[in-house]
């Protein structure tokens, strides 16, 4: 059970990071990217191939993020001056093109070349060796600090909504609804953080390399979330939002809209490249089929479900997505008398139905703001 919770925590955090890159591009800038998996693919393969050449892991992951950002630069120069639909067409094609190239070309694995279809195995994973007791206690202390900051931030987030609802008399009903939704989400995320903390402490003390990787990805997710939140609340982020709403307005104010779009596409791609590194480290062996287009649309589900243009909503969307995946994988075969193939199709159909209901009931997503809705553009 502990190992499974650690696995779910790594998967959720990795795809929350992946979704944050897409949310920056779509939720804040309005860029329609249907090939987000391309950035993850480049990040994953660059990291593992460089690590097999002896490059330090952190440097390999950093270079992977830069390579993914350079892909965003190439796509941006080719499409961002054209209509929005060209970007969506080019990105989905690029994602499949990169996967097919990796599948059909020989790759430099160590000192030899092997066919990409055979995948890449036996590469180094962070924190794979068992540390001494002192270092394990330090890791537990870091996890404790991270959990405490998370719980404190959630409490402040809920408290601010309560204060707004109690002080405002004009929009009191809508603010009360927001407070209730924040209260439910905050309690759920708090309980999840507590479960991850307990699993992490046990996994770190009786050292499990996956627990070390979990701590690493949680720290990276917290850092990226913090920096992206600062960016989107800055003047740079406000320009991105204005581009999302109507790019003619920032143009009229003298802003270089093309440059801002390019920066958003590159930064979102770099974040997805970092997520690719963690995805590869979690799998332990990567194959081209690990990077199917479906992963891009899974990220879209997370962003839309949590609320586009809301970074915490993206994390919430990832939590709900993997909770749904785990629960239906475990309990649905016991309820619905179908074979394995039909159960898989039923799970996809059911989450599609849930999204349709959500779009009717709350089109802005769970934590999204209706006044910032861009789905109808």
UniProtKB/TrEMBL annotation:
Cellular component terms per the entry's GO annotation: plasma membrane
InterPro entries in the record: ABC_transp_permease, LivM-like
Compartmental location: Cell membrane
Membrane topology designation: Multi-pass membrane protein
A Pfam family: BPD_transp_2
Entry keyword annotation includes DNA-binding: no
Transmembrane segments: 6-24, 31-52, 58-79, 133-158, 179-205, 211-232, 265-287, 299-324, 344-361
Gene Ontology molecular-function annotations: branched-chain amino acid transmembrane transporter activity
Chief location bin: membrane
Keyword terms of this UniProt record: Cell membrane, Membrane, Transmembrane, Transmembrane helix
CDD domains (alphabetical): TM_PBP1_LivM_like
Listed name of the protein: Inner-membrane translocator
